Amino acid sequence: MTVQPSTGPAAPGETPEAMRARAAALLGRARERSARLTALDDGELTAQHSPLMSPLVWDLAHIGSQEELWLVRDVGGREPLRPEIDGLYDAFQHTRSSRVDLPLLTPSEARQYVGEVRDKALDALEGSPLRGRRLEQDGFAFGMIVQHEQQHDETMLATHQLRAGDPVLEASPPPRPAAPVDVGAEVLVPAGPFEMGTSAEPWALDNERPVHTVDLPAYVIDTYPVTNGEYAAFVEAGGYDDRRLWTGTGWEHRVAEGLAAPRFWFRDAGGEWWRRRFGVVEPVPPDEPVVHVSFHEAQAYARWAGKRLPTEAEWEKAARFDPATGRSRRFPWGDDEPAPRHANLGQRHLQPAPAGAYPAGASALGAHQMLGDVWEWCDSGWHPYPGFTMFPYPEYSQVFFGGDYRVLRGGSFGTDPAAIRATFRNWDHPVRRQIFSGFRLARDARAGLDI
To answer: What residues contact 334, with CB distance under 8 A and at least 6 apart?
Structure first.
């Protein structure tokens, strides 16, 4: 029997044959994307386009290094291909700003290396029972590497946004909504418990586990992420100059960095807002979700609007909870894996889609575009769930718990469908703006009015 490989994340209960076909297809898709993002001349690949990011050639070889470590050496039981380079591509040994000075593989050497690793990784996939040992159960190790490569592809996409020069990436524009939408619409989320996290997703990472019950009071959350047009009104109203809207830390950062608008925005002589997007200079579209804003900016906007950012639990309940069944869905629209009609994912487009562009992706409660378009800041720190168990290595999640990190949920237009689900958790420092980050607002429900 021929198994048709899926292009989405692993599904519970798949046979080893189906899982093997899925993993091979997703490994191939990730590598095709990596190749597109590194189809540049050697000077562009070895340059440091921003101190916030690694040279693209480092990301490429790092992808191969992690794949070799887990799939070739561990699962496949093979001898190391290039043990002398392990330290060069260990993300914890070298800061991003220092990697440009390392004796890295050249672009041609990096391409050859990742190709050799992939050949042996596919051998390991054919030889693995995808059962038994936890690392191999349901193809977890292969899913982890798929997600790792796609996450670095999104990081490389952010590097492309930071590079100067003419455009080198192409994509069609996202779909337009079929009818006008009310960008100020809200959704009531009823009080009560829901199941947060997962213990069933085969490729869910350790920080998404285990499933646990969270009981929340009623609250209201925006139907759509905050748009450019809404955010521009905050800028025009003097939101960046009003100290009352900012936390002490946020205000200090705003002043020190001279923040006055989302990153990559600028005004023309007539006062109109423009942006630079992957080398293209264009007017800021008012109906798209705002992107490239920090947590501090999102929090200041929320106070200006008389609302707040949702907590991580509030975000997930609005995305997953189905009041008709009382259960939490895999994705906002249900349990079917992501398709193009559901969400703006996978770098199909190089920008967020206008509010209302994906009605098929709405959650059971009526919240739209909760997956794709922009990562959404939540007013929650980065902490483990009750009962958290580290697996398979502490540097994925555990070492980052605590600190000043803030949670982001939902993925962006640059996130691949295999690397996102309604339980997926991301985190970053609250000052970060080079990432594809936006937000939506929430507020407490008002007794007698909202309920």
So the answer is: none
For 188-220, give the DSSP string.
Answer: EE-SEEEEES-SS-TT--GGG-S-EEEEE--EE
Pairing of strands 426-428, 265-267: unpaired
Rounded Cα distance, 95 and 15, in Å = 41
User: Which letter, b or e, does each residue of 197-227 get, where b requires 16 or more Cβ atoms within 10 Å of its Cβ?
Assistant: bbeebbbbbbbbbbbeebebeebbbbbbbbb
C-alpha pair distances (Å), 59 with each of 32, 65, 154, 244 = 15, 10, 11, 41
In whole angstroms, how large is the CA radius of gyration of the chain?
22
pLDDT at 285: 98
Which residue in 336, 335, 364, 348 sits closest to 411, CA to CA? 348
Contacts of 60 (CB under 8 A, 6+ apart): 34, 38, 45, 107, 110, 111, 114
CATH 3.90.1580.10 fits 174-451, yes or no: yes
DSSP H or E segment with residue 118: helix 107-127
In the predicted structure, residue 7 carries a pLDDT above the cut 90: no
Task: Give the pLDDT band of residue 5 (cuts 50, 70, 90).
Answer: very low
Instruction: Tell me what the mean pLDDT of segment 41-67 comes to.
Output: 97
Model pLDDT for residues 74-131, shown as the tens digit of each residue: 999 999 999 999 999 999 999 999 999 999 999 999 999 999 999 999 999 999 999 9
Specify the fold of 16-162.
Answer: Four Helix Bundle (Hemerythrin (Met), subunit A) (1.20.120)
Partner residues linked to 322 by β-bridges:
327
CB atoms within 10 A of CB 16: 14
Amino acid present at 441: L
**Residue 6: what pLDDT?**
57
Measured CA to CA in angstroms, residue 219 lies from 244, 351, 377 at distances of: 25, 30, 17
Q: Reduce the secondary structure of 153-170 to three states and give it as a string.
A: HHHHHHHHHHCCCCCCCC
Confidence of residue 11 (pLDDT cuts 50, 70, 90): confident
Cα 227 vs. chain centroid, distance in angstroms?
A: 18
- Give me the residue spans of the domains in the chain: 16-162, 174-451
Determine the distance from the C-alpha atom of residue 78 to the mean position of all C-alpha atoms in its chain, rounded to a whole number: 32
